Amino acid sequence: MTAETVTAPTDVEDVLDTTDPVAAATAYVAAGALSHGTDRRVGLELELHLVNLATPARRPSWAEVQALMADLPSMPSGSTVTLEPGAQVELSTPPRDDVSAAVAALRADREVLRRALGEAGYGAAPLGADPAREVRRCNPAPRYAAMEQHFEARGCGSPARAMMSATAALQVNLDAGPAASWSARVELIRSLVPMFVAASATSPYLGGRASGWHSMRQETWHGIDHGRSDPIPVGEPTVAWALYALNAPVMLLRGDEGMTPVQTLVSFGDWLREPDRLGRRASQADLDYHLTTLFPPVRPRGYVEIRCIDALPDRWWPALAGLAVTLVDDPEAADLAADLCAPVAHAWEAAARHGLADPALRRAVTGCAEVAARLGPHDLRSELEAFAELVASGRTPADEIRSRAESRGPLRVLEEEAHA
């Protein structure tokens, strides 16, 4: 959920300046949804909860965070370092030729980040949710303030604040591939999402409490505006994304005086049809920015973002990256995964609530982990085999974290992962 800066080209006519702006917007979004190519590159993004090791129960102030970020060295593999609303630190690698190279790049930059933060007395915990600290936004960016106000007006302020400021993800980005295979590729990824959610969860606690959900990170997403967080409907993926985007509520307006939250329910399509609903005509720049405020679990950005995987401790995130890419990009593994996940392809909520306690999800997760351990890249074989052994025992990283939190307390878990 990095605050992307999007501006419309200044040397071309606004594509929405037409007598049928809805049709123009639909065509524009569909045209930019996926990019044809034969590459199978991989990019990874890992979010981590920033922790002051001297006072771990206290969320760092924004002034502390800014001073800390100013002193960070450049990342040797070229990852960018950005900040989320709760001062979660995000490492985002450039695209690499395959998952092994992407994992190696993220590992190298994660180690540099670890050392730099440690020298300043900080750590960073890769967990799906902050298990202990009070939910509080400390990043004052106008985007995030406007988001909070929009969600509050929509009646989902509490889960939205938790989603923004106390959750973290491992995002896997994949090339779209040849245009002829887009529908099958996107539908495969979509069908794997419940399995990914059940397998990857590391958020049985959030803000010092346990709700009983297997993934409290997913619980927060389930609690916000469904028009921007639900899965994109089944269909030809570029058109389905365009229709999803135009049906989604407008979150905020950008103007000369900053960000203004939209506190009434107005879809982008409604705005195009009735400009007076929001006081002015929608522009191409507005549409570009609107796309950055939509958070489905699988999102097209020219490439394909898999956004449903919890951030995981360092001993597990390489395995989940290897699992995801193997099951999508290896043809034999993809066919096997499609069969394994077909019975649970729509079990989004069950995966988040119950994880492997659901027998069908357990079969899908253990089967997919075995496939990835057998067919995944040699460089990640030991990580994939260890993960397959874990889930074969009926456990996931969430179960490990829950056991530690119950015996030592959630704050201790946060400290341990920040020190790791």
UniProtKB/TrEMBL annotation:
Keyword ATP-binding carried by entry: yes
The GO molecular function terms of this record are: ATP binding; glutamate-cysteine ligase activity
InterPro entries from the xrefs? EgtA_Actinobacteria (IPR017809), GCL_bact_plant (IPR035434), GCS2 (IPR006336), Gln_synth/guanido_kin_cat_dom (IPR014746)
Q: In which pathway does it act?
A: Amino-acid biosynthesis; ergothioneine biosynthesis
What reactions does this protein catalyze? L-cysteine + L-glutamate + ATP = gamma-L-glutamyl-L-cysteine + ADP + phosphate + H(+)
Keyword set includes Chaperone? no
Task: Name the GO terms of the biological process aspect.
Answer: ergothioneine biosynthetic process; glutathione biosynthetic process
What Pfam families would the database entry show? Answer: GCS2 (PF04107)
Cite the entry's keywords alphabetically: ATP-binding, Ligase, Nucleotide-binding
- Could you tell me the EC number(s) of this protein? 6.3.2.2
The similarity comment for this entry is: Belongs to the glutamate--cysteine ligase type 2 family. EgtA subfamily.
Give the function comment from the record. Catalyzes the synthesis of gamma-glutamylcysteine (gamma-GC). This compound is used as substrate for the biosynthesis of the low-molecular thiol compound ergothioneine.
Q: What is this protein called?
A: Glutamate--cysteine ligase EgtA
Q: Which organism is it from?
A: Nocardioides psychrotolerans
